[in-house]
Known about the structure:
The protein is mostly helical. The protein has helices at residues 2-8, 15-18, 25-40, 50-59, 74-83, 94-98, 101-107, 118-128. The longest helix is centred in the N-terminal third of the chain and has 16 residues, at 25-40.
Amino acid sequence: MIKRIIALKPYYIAPEVLRKKYDEKCDVWSCGVIMYILLCGFPPFNGKGDNEILQNVLKGQFTFKHSEFENVTLEAKKLIQKMLEYKPENRISIENALNDAWFEKMLGTEKVDVNLNQKVLTNLRTFRV
């Protein structure tokens, strides 16, 4: 079953799932990957094929050094870092993630600039394909 899941969704899988030792924190990881993709249009752990993607997931290294992240708030980046913490025992819980400063800012009365970078939209279209 795990091999089938890996074949279908290699971008979102947490490193501990590949090692067959995991708990609910693997879902936090997956949500962090989705948040990263929604903010820039491509995954944090990319590759030419499933094997390369999985190797990059196992390394767990990602960056915000892309032009698409220039207008992403520091709060959003910090939340992603907490969600993509490599060691599950140090990774933020889903409850704490939902109470994070970024969500407070997004759900609060503060006006947020939601203009999307055209490059991000293009990246999302390309990634979808």
